[in-house]
Backbone:
C-alpha cells in the first residue's frame, strides 16, 4: 500500500516537473520572440499571416499612410502575430479583417480611465436625489393631509439628502464589485450580506429621522420637491459632462 502511494507521489511530482519545464520553455520562446529582430520575425510568418501583413500594409498606404509609418505600425504587431501563430491563432482571428485592423491603427482607441469611487458615489447620489425628490413630490401632491401636517414624517429635506447619499454609496459599491473579474469578486453570499446590512442601516436611519424636529429637517411642498429634483438632475448632467463619466448607474 505504501509502495503504491510512493509511486503515485513520484508520478505526480514528475508530471508537475514536466509541466513546470514546459511553462519555462514557453516563457523563453515568448521572450525570444519579443526581443527578436523584426526582419527575422517576418521570415517566421506563415503564408496566411504573411498575406495578412501584405494586405494590411497595402491598405494603410492606399489610405494615406507613408511607407515608413505603415512599416512602423506593422513592425509593432509582428511579435504578437508570431507569438499567437505558435499557439495556432492566425492574424485574421487575432485582429479581425484587414480593414478593421487598419481602422484600429488609424484611429486608436484611448484607454478608458476608471471612474473614481467618490465621483461614482456623487453621480449616483444625485440621481437618487432626483428620483426621491420626484417621489416625495408625488406623495405630497397626492396626500390628502399634506406632508407638513405630520410632525413625524420621513420626507424632510435632510432625510432626502442623507438617504440619497446612502443609496448612492451602496449602489456604487455594488456596481464596482460587479465590474471586477469573476475571480476577484466577493462571493454572492458576502455581497448579499453587505447589501442586507446596508438596507437595515437605511431602515434604522429612517426610523431615527422621525425623532428629528421639523425645524432641523424641514419638509417642502410638492412644487418644492419637484424643483429640488430638477436641480439635482441638472447638477448630475453637468457633473457627468465635466468629469466625462459614461457608465450607467443601473445595470
Residues:
Amino acid at each position: 500500500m505504501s509502495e503504491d502511494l510512493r509511486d503515485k507521489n513520484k508520478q505526480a511530482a514528475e508530471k508537475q516537473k514536466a509541466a513546470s519545464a514546459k511553462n519555462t520553455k514557453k516563457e523563453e520562446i515568448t521572450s525570444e520572440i519579443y526581443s527578436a529582430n523584426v526582419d527575422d520575425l517576418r521570415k517566421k510568418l506563415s503564408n496566411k499571416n504573411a498575406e495578412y501583413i501584405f494586405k494590411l500594409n497595402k491598405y494603410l498606404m492606399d489610405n494615406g499612410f507613408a511607407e515608413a509609418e505603415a512599416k512602423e505600425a506593422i513592425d509593432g504587431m509582428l511579435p504578437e502575430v508570431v507569438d499567437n501563430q505558435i499557439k495556432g491563432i492566425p492574424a485574421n482571428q487575432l485582429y479581425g479583417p484587414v480593414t478593421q485592423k487598419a481602422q484600429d491603427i488609424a484611429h486608436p482607441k484611448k484607454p478608458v480611465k476608471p471612474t473614481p469611487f467618490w465621483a461614482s458615489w456623487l453621480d449616483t447620489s444625485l440621481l437618487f436625489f432626483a428620483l426621491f425628490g420626484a417621489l416625495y413630490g408625488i406623495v405630497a401632491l397626492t396626500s390628502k393631509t399634506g406632508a407638513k401636517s405630520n410632525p413625524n414624517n420621513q420626507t424632510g429635506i435632510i432625510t432626502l439628502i442623507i438617504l440619497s447619499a446612502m443609496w448612492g454609496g451602496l449602489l456604487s459599491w455594488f456596481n464596482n464589485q460587479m465590474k471586477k473579474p469573476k475571480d476577484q469578486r466577493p462571493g454572492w453570499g458576502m455581497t448579499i450580506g453587505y447589501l442586507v446590512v446596508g438596507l437595515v442601516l437605511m431602515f434604522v436611519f429612517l426610523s431615527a429621522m422621525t425623532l428629528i424636529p421639523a425645524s432641523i429637517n424641514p419638509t417642502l411642498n410638492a412644487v418644492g420637491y419637484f424643483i429640488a429634483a430638477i436641480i439635482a438632475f441638472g447638477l448630475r448632467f453637468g457633473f457627468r459632462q465635466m468629469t466625462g463619466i459614461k457608465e450607467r448607474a443601473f445595470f
